[in-house]
Amino acid sequence: MIVSALLTSLGINTALCVLFFTLYSVLKKQPCNYEVYMPRLLAEGTSRRRSHFNLERLVPSAGWVAKAWRLSEDEILSSSGLDGVVYMRLITFSLKIFSFAGFIGILVLLPVNISGDALVGFDFANVTSSSLDIFTISNVKNGSNWLWIHFSAVYFVTVFICFMLYKEYKYISARRISYFYSSPPQPHQFTILVRSIPTSSSCSVSESVESFFKELYPATYLSHVVVRRTSKIQSLLNEAKNLGKRLGQLQSDPSQQQHRQGGFFGLFKRKINLRDHYEKRLEDIEENVRLKQSEASLAGEETRAAFVAFKSRYAAAAAVRLHPAVNPIEWITEQAPEPHDVYWPFFSESFMRRWISKLVVIVVFIVFTILFLIPVLIVQGLTNLSQLEVLFPFLKSVLTITFISQVITGYLPSLILLLFLQTVPPVMEFLSSIQGYISHSNIEKSACNKVLWFTVWNVFFATVFSGSVLYQMSIFLDPKAIPQKLAVAVPAQASFFIAYVVTSGWTSTSSELFRMFPLICSLIKRPCASEDDEFEVPSFPYHKDIPRVLMFGLLGITYFFLAPLILPFLLIYLCLAYIVFRNQFINVYAPKYETAGKFWPIVHNSMIFSLVLMHIIAVGIFALKKLSTASSLMIPLPIITLLFNEYCRKRFLPMFVAYSAETLIKKDREDPNDATMDEFYDKLIIAYRDPALQPIQSPSDTSTLRTPLISS
To answer: Does 581 have pLDDT greater than 90?
Structure first.
């Protein structure tokens, strides 16, 4: 790619960013758009629709930037939980390491690369027609002593990143413990989930659970709730919810209440009152729900799973860590999630079914990853004009136009790849949901890992080794060839990844602020919506945004000594993300669950992987550049990095897996002094009842149908 193609991509994306920022600053002031741009404030009641018109609404402003900038970490903690703090710490952590790497890369390495003449001399008079390769390490002659500067830079940046990783891990670990100490008693701290409960014909699942845990924990066992099959009830509740929405729309628009139905061959149709029709259907559904709830109370509708509550946090933790039975595939225990975080469809009948579902997900993940190579190869074909002219001869005359060729090679490939990548997070979330996870938070953590490694493989490695799947696999089957292959392939794709950072980073972040799809959905629903309609406050998509930042971290770390020109574009992206996402935490997203910072180990592992990958590339690049001494001296660096990672894993990771006995006992000793604990235990007994067994809420006037026949 030449400089002019990059400048074209830069100009298009900058214009889109300015457009999105301008439109946002105007549209967010319109009362009809409050549900799109500030749903959280509307739900909390801290913002109200203003009916009077003023000219200020139509004038773009940047006041929201100052408000987002002033937001403190404690404010993020109180409003978005420790997970929100972890995400913002990831952005500030990336800003720190790439500011340091950028200082070295731009002021030291970039001049060295430009002054080299291995490819072609740098022509200041014709910069736009120059290849971007002259800004990379490829322009430094083989065996040049200037390469020792790159060698030293790799060591300096590695030490700095490891120091920052240790500092952040320690800080977030301490934050996690202090967050636990400061929180009031929570149901999930006292509750465990038990699955694969053995059954017998002589007693029910509920009786088995009670007798088993009363015998093992007679002093600390409190109560239990057996999980029941409620999928049919849930489908009926969803139907009732949709009917309720239709009734609300009919009440707001009486002209739509009459409807023609029936007749012979379309003739003699009769009028029916839609409102009466929907109300009758709603009453029938409510009665059916009551019947299904009654059936769910029968022993035959029990699953082999139950939530078991204890009188102390330490007792619950001990029940999880010590396997209660001799048979390891029976009485399987794990810490319960928060009650509103439970993913109710997760319960499988047996250990074997859950194991098989995981194998199926692995196979589907591999197949999807392989199929995704098709758009990646298409994208790489667009970056090469000569290949396009061979494949599509009729485009030869069009491709001779300078601007069109620059758009195709500089902007279009990264845009197409970005559009295809939008399908990945929902697919990975679905795959994680069928793996047997017990909570939405575990599903999102699993999806986060899947999206991250899918992106690393299909965006980084598949782009670098643009070829067949077998060719890519064969590279990793021969470990000795990996450094040399990476040394050749990675610098060649520097220009594409710079354009990718601009398109996927800058434009995606500004479009996050603009919220295009929620705005379009709001415009479609607006004609038939009323002011009393409920709206859902979205939760932050960690499984989508954390992998994106980590992918850019991988690009920044691996390319800082190869093509330091990428670093300014990364820093601009991180600055945009810092402001935009702080604003979104204030106005848009509300937490639906809290993992207390459990996403950070994913961040740490990804950074370690990026460092080791950079070291492997450095070994190959110095060998390729005929600097064998530097290549040999680089070999200890990944070993030291992995030893550092092992130390961090031993030092900090256990605090993210489970709280220590010291921490739990210290917190338990505070409970006798809390006057609200008796009330808390009463609520704990019913905290994990399935929402499908609760009274149905609907616009129906028949209040007698709202009381369930069973209480649990």
So the answer is: yes
Distance between CA atoms of residues 154 and 540, nearest Å? 35
Name which of 587, 598, 594, 600 is nearest 71 in CA terms: 587
| Strands (DSSP E) found in 180-324 | 191-195, 221-228, 258-261, 270-273, 302-310
Domain range list for the chain:
3-184+469-526+534-665, 188-337+675-706
Q: CA of 135: how far to CAs of 97, 556, 630, 669, in Å?
A: 21, 15, 21, 62
Statement: residue 267 has pLDDT above 50: no
Q: In this structure, what DSSP letter does residue 539 have?
A: P
| Count of CB atoms situated within 10 Å of the CB of 694 | 12
Q: Say if residues 544 and 493 touch (Cβ distance below 8 Å).
A: no
What is the chain's Cα-based Rg? Answer: 30
In Å, how far are 64, 577, 669 from 582, measured between CA atoms?
A: 10, 8, 37
pLDDT number for residue 383:
54
Q: What is the pLDDT of residue 166?
A: 96
Strand order, beta sheet including 332-335: 221-228, 302-310, 191-195, 332-335
pTM of the predicted model as reported, rounded to 2 decimal places = 0.84
CB crowding 144-162: b at 16 or more within 10 Å, else e: beebebbbebbeebbeebb
State both tokens at 476: 């990793």
Encoded amino acid at 184, one letter? P
pLDDT tens, position by position, 273-302? 666 776 777 777 777 777 777 766 665 667
**Of 356, 353, 330, 348, residue with least CA distance to 229:** 348
Q: How many Cα atoms are found within 13 Å in the side-chain-facing hemisphere of 602?
A: 28
Whole-number Cα distances in Å, 551 to 227, 453, 493: 40, 9, 15
Mean pLDDT value of segment 680-684: 90
Dihedral sign computed on CA atoms, order 167, 170, 176, 177: negative
The burial class, CB within 10 Å (0-12 / 13-18 / 19+), for 336 is buried
Inter-residue contact 502 to 13 (CB < 8 Å) = yes
Q: How many CA atoms lie within 13 A of 582 on its CB side?
A: 23
With CA atoms as reference, report the closest residue to 519 among 16, 32, 18, 21.
32
Tokens (6 digits) for 306:
């139950």
| pLDDT (mean) for 105-128 | 72
What's residue 707's pLDDT?
Answer: 43
Give dist(CA 94, CA 502) in Å, integer. 16
Give Cα 436 to chain centroid, integer Å.
19
Is the Cβ–Cβ distance between 191 and 687 less than 8 Å? yes
Tokens 């390319």 correspond to 559
